[in-house]
Design a protein that fits this description.
Blueprint: E1 34-35, E2 41-49, E3 66-74, E4 77-86, H1 87-92, H2 97-123, E5 129-130, H3 139-155, E6 163-167, H4 169-178, H5 181-188, E7 192-195, E8 205-207, E9 219-221, E10 228-234, E11 238-250, E12 260-273, E13 281-285
Parallel strand pairs: 5-13, 6-7
Antiparallel strand pairs: 1-2, 2-3, 4-12, 6-10, 8-9, 10-13, 11-12
Helix pairs in contact: 3-4
């Protein structure tokens, strides 16, 4: 990693403009899950009750039942990296290099990859609502598809409260610019509206290993992946949490390999959907 020398005591390190995680709002209540029989899995409750029966004036109520089951899901995300900044690179940038490196890692690599993994994982869940592939010509077509998606989720009795609309900036900005009664009513029906850069919005991704010919790490759109137009997520349908997030700083004097600062980062977690709540996800993606 090369750094230009700072001149005239001015901080000149470039910063990449990247939005932080757009899926942070989907992190759920960890009290709703418990450790599974194996350390790499969790259990979560699924509740079902029987319906009403005929009331008899002599015998009274029919007898119902409550069915509470614990379903199991395995952790599906375990990623990390270690970066080193030489003490001279740090000194010659007036101690900016190492501090900025950590921020850049989170903003430009950790957050985008976490978002991309979340959307690709949800897109692959069996039983979600999926629209016919379509590339929208304009915001009017997008609005029509949003109405269709809302109708679908309403008919499936997905609660309106807690629905989050994720859409590309181009589509969301376009429908906001319509500024009609219809567009305002549809947009206002969502608890949150989030713009997702297309580079994080695919139906499938490849997580790069960080080794051999994939030494740069990060992720890329999978060969079978499609560009997502928008996704509607009912937050209570998701299981999303991080079991373990570790980021440590090792100073040069404790670095056995080189004269440099080391930053370690690791995230171990889970993205999944409750098996009986797949209707809480609606997906629209582009034509091939």
């Amino acid at each position: 990693m090369a750094f230009q020398l700072a001149k005239n005591y001015t901080a000149l390190l470039d910063e990449v403009y990247k939005a932080a995680s757009v899926t942070a709002d989907l992190v759920g209540d960890q009290s709703m899950v418990k450790a599974g029989a194996n350390v790499n899995e969790i259990c979560y409750p699924q509740l079902d009750v029987t319906g009403l029966g005929d009331y008899d004036r002599n015998e009274g109520y029919t007898t119902g039942a409550v069915d509470l089951k614990w379903a199991t899901s395995k952790f599906n995300y375990d990623r990390g990296t270690k970066i080193t900044v030489d003490v001279m690179d740090d000194e010659e940038t007036f101690n900016l290099a190492f501090g900025k490196a950590g921020a850049e890692l989170i903003r430009t690599k950790v957050a985008p990859e976490g978002d991309a993994f979340t959307f690709a994982t949800l897109a692959a869940v069996e039983g979600i609502s999926v629209a016919d592939p379509k590339t929208f010509a304009d915001a009017v077509e997008f609005l029509a598809e949003l109405i269709k998606a809302k109708n679908t989720m309403d008919e499936l009795e997905v609660p309106e409260e807690g629905r989050i609309l994720y859409a590309t900036p181009t589509l969301l900005n376009g429908v906001m610019a319509l500024d009609t009664t219809k567009s305002r009513e549809i947009l206002n029906s969502f608890t949150l509206k989030k713009k997702v850069p297309q580079g994080r919005f695919y139906t499938a991704i490849d997580l790069l290993s960080g080794k051999d010919d994939e030494e740069a790490g990060h992720y890329r759109k999978a060969a079978e992946g499609r560009d997502i137009n928008f996704m509607i997520v009912h937050k209570p349908a998701l299981i999303k949490f991080d079991k373990h997030v570790a980021h440590d700083v090792i100073p040069p004097e404790l670095n056995p390999s080189s004269d440099g600062y080391i930053l370690k980062y690791r995230k171990y977690g889970l993205v999944d959907v409750y098996k009986n709540k797949a209707a809480g996800i609606y997906l629209s993606y582009k034509e091939a």
